[in-house]
Amino acid sequence: MEENWLLLSLNSEQLGIKIYDTRHEVNAVFAADAVARLRQHIGVAAVTSGPGVTNTITSLKNAQLAESPVILLAGAAPSLMKGKGALQDIDQIPIIQSMCKFTARIINVEDIVPTLREAISVSQSGTPGPVFIEFPLDVLQSYQEVLRDASFIKNPETPEKQNFNESVYQHIYRQFHNAWSHEEFAPLPVTIPKPNIEDITKIADILENAKRPLLLMGSQSTLPPLKTEQLVQIVNNLGIPTYLGGMSRGLLGANSPLQMRQNRKIAIKEADVILLAGAVCDFRLTYGKGFSPETKVISINRSQEQMLKNHGVFWNSAATIQADVGLTLLELQNQMKERKWGGLEKCREWIEMLKEMEIKKEEDTAKKLAQKPDDGHMNPLVLLTAMDEVIPKDAILVADGGDFVGSAAYIVRPGGPLQWLDPGTFGTLGVGAGFALGAKAVYPERTVVIIYGDGSAGYSLMEFDTFVRHKLPVVGIIGNDACWTQIAREQVPHFKSAVACDLDYTHYEEAAKALGTQSLFLDGDMDVKQVREALAQVMARSRAEKQSLVVNVLIGKTNFREGSISV
Predict the structure, then answer these.
(1) Angle formed by the axes of helices 57-65 and 25-39, nearest 10°
(2) Which residues form the Thiamine pyrophosphate enzyme N-terminal TPP-binding domain (predicted)?
């Protein structure tokens, strides 16, 4: 049912809404997800019916687990043809209902506006998430077109045929009755859970007596109504050493005295008070197993399920607040100010201890930077260090991969808030090009860099055709070790076999070049300075000529991430 998608696109274009068409529906939804995160509002994707809808399942589930307010609009067979064997006619809503906060099928034209208003509000209220609306072809066409294409029986001689024609006519009449009677188009209010004063007082009492407090921030901390600039000020005012995860990466810039990047497990063990500000006790925090029984844990989350994940099994809380993270931290800051909380000064000794451990860890990393892989290819830490030095500080970084991207998370530092996009808790490979498209749509003048593993690059490299067609210059840098290395790290030692782990040192940059991008291939024993200069030169040319760029770098095997897999 390509006509559904075409009608939506044409009408949107006439209204001045920019349309970006992708090579695969999964990337359209990934792009909408990125738009929602970066705009702190909704992102919208429209797909054709049947296989177009089923192609979105992975990206829709990713949006759900990332708590992203994505609006998915889909076509469907004409309502009169439902269940009669029409092209791509399947029962779509049951397939994706479990992934959406709200689903609806438009039956009558008058339902379009109120359904959209409700869907947009629901997607952003409480814990945000995706919604789905199905548009049968005949509710997108004009009354005259629907009458023309209706299955009226010519010359109906029998009462049965006459009754059939009458039922068709009545159906069409109901579809268009009161179709243009709406006068209210303004958005419905969004419900945001707010903290109460008693809860704020309770956590302020706990924090006031802390000697070694720790703030663990997750993606929810970046949700509206607070702007990220306000959140930065709040965190600085609290003065608590902070670890950033998910969409909160980059929140404090590249060189904040409060931000810690290394030794999180040790810090969690040593802390006497931990604030989970949207952070969740799932595999990323070893399910809460690492918390000391003496540590007072405060969990703040819009979702009760996420707030209490593994609670009472692996960890216990001193306080929980089901409310918006930013608003809760704002009220906590206000109370701590009234109590003359010392902030940075009170935590200075604790911060210095963590910083000393941080320096030692980075010294160990520097030693690994000097190591030369046995296979003769580039040390991935050399490449990542050069990337960190050459990528503009206002660039948006898209993380799409396993082992290589896991290393990048330690080395390549986002320069500010909302400048790091990764899939989130679902760990989805293939988000790269879709996320980059969304980022470029929101910030067309900023550099967008996809950090690819060679495995993940295979999912979305074809979308560089989309970047070229829409004149959206995106940079893709592939760390190519010819392997699904994150899997191989565990599989080979356990089973003494690399079956289904090995790839080839494929020239991905040549494939991208055929799509119209610039390209660069790097290999061999290069130092950081050489790689930095090579990247700087080709990225400058890419910017000047407003062309996309794919850099393919053959990297060697190292032990930097040994034992790092989390499940």
Answers:
(1) 20
(2) 7-94
